[in-house]
């Protein structure tokens, strides 16, 4: 992976099935499985984005558990993967953290199963980031997708993942989508 990649799992602002702005809950599976994919594919940092303090506490309790001696000794690979997680209150706070770490403005790339128009593939995104010498901030939504206020801030939208189901079914878990997209980077 030539470019620095940062990943954000957004829990707010998100759409619900009626198209209204909501905040979704953090899930234990997303914490663990996405962290493992991020570690496997060389992501610099995995941001879990939620403004709810109780959700911050939940994530931090899980991270703390895996950093304890007995849990770390039992499964050091999991502790290693989880060490790349940061919980942030907002998308903007995550962007600032990337800029503070790299000294560069991140190229914001959005994903969504429901996109009808996109700018290109992961390879196109990589080329754009390399050309402009910017880190990539690849963001994923929960619920029914990213709210338009986040989509408006994008620099690039990645093609949705398309399956081969004859009836058009297209509803991967975000954990699966993350792994598929990350596997497409060089």
Task: Describe the structure in your own words.
The chain is globular, with a radius of gyration of 16 Å. The chain is 42% helix and 17% strand. The chain has one domain (5-183): SPOUT methyltransferase, trefoil knot domain (Alpha/beta knot, 3-Layer(aba) Sandwich). It has 8 helices and 8 strands, in the order E-E-E-H-E-H-H-H-E-H-E-H-E-H-E-H. The protein has helices at 28-40, 53-67, 69-74, 76-82, 91-102, 122-132, 148-151, 174-183, and strands at residues 5-10, 14-15, 21-22, 45-49, 85-88, 107-110, 136-141, 156-157. The mean pLDDT is 93. It is of the alpha/beta class. The strands form 2 sheets. It has a 6-stranded parallel β-sheet with strand order 5-4-1-7-6-8, sandwiched between helices. The protein has a two-stranded antiparallel sheet with strand order 2-3.
Question: Can you give me a brief rundown of this structure?
Answer:
The protein is an alpha/beta fold and 186 residues long. It has helices at 28-40, 53-67, 69-74, 76-82, 91-102, 122-132, 148-151, 174-183; strands at residues 5-10, 14-15, 21-22, 45-49, 85-88, 107-110, 136-141, 156-157. It has a single domain (5-183), classed as SPOUT methyltransferase, trefoil knot domain (Alpha/beta knot), CATH 3.40.1280.
């Amino acid at each position: 992976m030539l470019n620095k990649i940062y990943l954000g799992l957004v829990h707010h602002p998100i759409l619900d099935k009626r198209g209204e702005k909501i905040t979704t809950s953090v899930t234990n599976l997303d914490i663990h499985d996405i962290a493992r994919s991020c570690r496997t594919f060389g992501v610099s940092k995995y941001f879990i984005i939620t403004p709810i303090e109780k959700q911050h506490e939940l994530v931090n309790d899980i991270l703390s558990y895996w950093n304890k001696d007995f849990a770390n000794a039992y499964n050091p690979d999991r502790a290693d993967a989880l060490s790349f997680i940061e919980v942030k209150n907002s998308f903007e706070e995550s962007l600032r953290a990337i800029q503070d770490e790299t000294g560069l403005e991140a190229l914001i790339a959005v994903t969504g199963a429901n996109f009808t128009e996109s700018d290109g593939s992961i390879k196109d995104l990589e080329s754009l980031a390399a050309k402009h010498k910017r880190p990539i901030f690849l963001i994923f939504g929960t619920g029914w997708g990213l709210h338009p206020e986040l989509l408006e801030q994008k620099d690039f939208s990645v093609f949705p993942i398309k399956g081969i189901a004859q009836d058009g079914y297209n509803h991967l878990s975000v954990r699966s989508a993350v792994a598929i997209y990350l596997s497409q980077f060089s």
